Amino acid sequence: MSSLPTDPMPSPPPLAAVRAGVPEHGEPPKYYQVKQKIDAVLEELGPGTPLPTERVFADRFGVSRMTVRQAIRELRLEGRVQRSGRSSVAGRPKLVQPLTLASYTEGVRRQGHRPGRRLVVLEQLPATAALAAALQIAPGAPVFHLERLLLADDEQVGLESTYLSAARFPDLGDEFDPATSLYAYLRTHGVALADADERIETVLASPREVQLIGTSPALPMLLLNRITRDPAGRPVECVRSLYRGDRFSFTAHLTEGR
Fold it and tell me: Are 145 and 123 in contact (CB under 8 A)?
C-alpha cells in the first residue's frame, strides 16, 4: 500500500479571485463588501479569538446588523468563522487531506493533529445489488458495515462508513478495534492496497448525519466514495466518507494523462 510521502510537496497557496466579488454590471453587494472587510480583520486575529459583535461591525462599516449577519454567515460556512457558545471566533486553518492510499489516521497525524475515531455501529448486513457489484460478491452475501465518527483533536469532523466482505474478513467483528486504523489492521493480516477509484462531490448532510456529526444542516459537506483494490485487482473495501466542508480541504498531485 502506498503511504504519504516523507517530504510532501507543499500545497499551492489559495489564490484570490480576479476582481473578487465584482460582477460585470457594477459594484458587489453590500454584504460582500462587508464580508471582505471582516475577512481582513480575521487575518489579524489568531484562531479562536472572539470577533467584535455584530453591532460593533455595523457601526464600524456603516451598515445594518442584518448585513453584517449575512457576511458572517458566509464566513462561517467557509470555515473562516466558528461558533464558540454564543460568540463567533476566528476559525482554525482547515485540515488538508491528501488524496492518496493512506488512512485518515496517517493523514491527520502527519499534520500535527491527534486523529481519532468513535464507533457508531459495527454490524453484518446483506449486500445490496450495487454494493455486491462493487465488492464483486453475490447479492445478499454478508458484508461488514463499519461506521465511525472521525475526530481531529477530539473535534467531530466527519463520518465514515466502510463495507467489507464478511467471507473475506470473517474475524473482523471480533478482532478489530474500531478506535484504530483499519488499514493497519489489513496490513497485519497480509492485505495490501494497490489502487482505488474515488469520487468527490458536495452534499448536505442528512438529518441523521447532522445529529451524529453535530453540525449545521446548512453546512456544505464533502462526500468521498471510494473502492479500494489489492494488487490482484480484487476489491477490498467500499468507503463512504463525509467531511465537514468548513474543516477540510483535499490535495492531489497530478501528472499528464497518457
Answer: yes
> What does the alpha-carbon distance between residue 227 and residue 240 come to, in Å, rounded to a whole number?
9
Q: Where in the chain are the domains?
A: 30-90, 95-251
> Distance between CA atoms of 137 and 129, rounded to whole angstroms?
9
Name the pairing type of β-strands 155-165 and 81-84: unpaired
pLDDT digits (tens, 9 = 90+) for 90-102: 888 888 777 777 7
Cα–Cα distance between 122 and 38 in angstroms, integer? 44
Long-range Cβ pairs for the range 82-88 (8 Å, 24+): 82/246, 84/48, 84/50, 87/50, 87/51, 88/50, 88/51
Cβ burial 128-158 (10 Å sphere, 16+ → b, else e) = eeebbebbebeeeeebbbbbbbbbbeeebbb
C-alpha cell, 26: 457594477
Nearest Cα residue to 104 out of 245, 241, 237, 252: 241
The predicted pLDDT at position 21 comes to 62
Give Rg (Cα) of the chain: 22
213-246: per-residue pLDDT in tens?
Answer: 998 888 889 999 999 999 999 999 999 999 999 8
Name the phi and psi angles at 35, rounded to 5. Answer: -60, -45
Q: Which CATH number fits domain 95-251: 3.40.1410.10, 2.170.190.11, 2.60.120.10, 3.90.1200.10?
A: 3.40.1410.10
Average pLDDT (26-51) is 87
Q: What is the CATH number of domain 30-90?
A: 1.10.10.10
Distance (Å, whole) CA 161 – CA 120: 9
